[in-house]
C-alpha cells in the first residue's frame, strides 16, 4: 500500500548518510575533548606535527580569531612605522629614527601598547633599537629606527595583511557546534 519512488529513497538514504556522518564526527570530537572524560588517563593521546603544536585546528573559530589578531597586530606595526617615518629626525639623511621618549608621547595618544608593538615590529625586522627593551624615562634618548625604507615596509606589511585576509575567506568555519565560541 505504501509505494515509494527511487527519488524518495535517495533522499532518505542521503539524510541517513548525512546523519551517520555527523554521528561519527561527534564521536571523534568526544574522543579528543578533554571535558568528556572522567579521568585524563582515559583520554587518548593526541599526535601533532611539530608545526601544528600550539596552533588552533584549521577551520575553527580559534583559528579565525588568531588570524584576525595577526591582522590587527600588523596594522598597529604599520601605524607605528608610519609614525616614525613622518616624525623622524634623520640626521645623516639615511637613517629614519625617532627618540623613544618622543615616540612614546606621540604613540600614547594612539595606543597604550607601544612596547609590545615595538617588540613585535623588531621580531619581524621592521624596526630596531638598542637594548632588550625600552623604559619610559630611562631610555627616552635611545632611537627607534626603521630598518628599511618606509614604502618598502608598507608594501610588505600590506601584502601580509592581504594574504591573511585571503586565508580567512578561504577557510570557512567547519562544524561550529563542535568548536569553541
UniProtKB/TrEMBL annotation:
Listed InterPro entries: Abra, Costars_dom, Costars_sf
Residue ranges that the Swiss-Prot or TrEMBL entry lists as coiled coil: none
Any GO CC annotation of this UniProt entry: sarcomere
Residue span, Costars domain: 71-147
PANTHER family linked: EG:152A3.3 PROTEIN-RELATED (PTHR22739:SF7), STRIATED MUSCLE ACTIVATOR OF RHO-DEPENDENT SIGNALING-RELATED (PTHR22739)
Name under which the protein is recorded: Costars domain-containing protein
GO molecular function, one term: actin binding
Top-level division of the source organism's lineage: Eukaryota
Any Pfam family matching the protein: Costars
GO biological process terms on file: positive regulation of Rho protein signal transduction; positive regulation of transcription by RNA polymerase II
Amino acid at each position: 500500500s505504501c509505494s515509494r519512488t527511487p527519488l524518495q529513497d535517495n533522499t532518505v538514504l542521503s539524510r541517513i548518510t548525512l546523519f551517520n556522518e555527523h554521528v561519527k564526527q561527534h564521536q571523534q570530537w568526544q574522543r579528543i575533548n578533554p571535558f568528556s572524560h572522567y579521568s585524563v588517563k582515559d583520554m587518548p593521546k593526541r599526535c601533532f606535527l611539530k608545526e601544528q603544536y600550539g596552533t588552533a585546528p584549521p577551520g575553527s573559530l580559534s583559528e579565525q580569531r588568531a588570524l584576525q589578531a595577526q591582522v590587527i597586530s600588523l596594522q598597529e606595526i604599520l601605524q607605528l612605522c608610519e609614525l616614525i617615518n613622518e616624525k623622524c629626525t634623520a640626521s645623516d639623511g639615511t637613517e629614519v629614527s625617532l627618540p623613544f621618549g618622543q615616540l612614546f608621547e606621540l604613540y600614547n595618544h594612539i595606543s597604550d601598547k607601544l612596547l609590545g608593538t615595538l617588540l613585535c615590529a623588531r621580531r619581524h625586522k621592521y624596526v630596531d633599537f638598542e637594548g632588550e627593551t625600552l623604559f619610559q624615562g630611562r631610555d627616552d634618548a635611545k632611537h627607534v629606527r626603521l630598518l628599511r625604507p618606509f614604502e618598502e615596509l608598507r608594501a610588505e606589511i600590506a601584502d601580509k595583511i592581504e594574504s591573511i585576509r585571503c586565508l580567512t575567506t578561504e577557510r570557512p568555519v567547519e562544524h561550529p557546534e563542535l568548536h569553541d565560541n
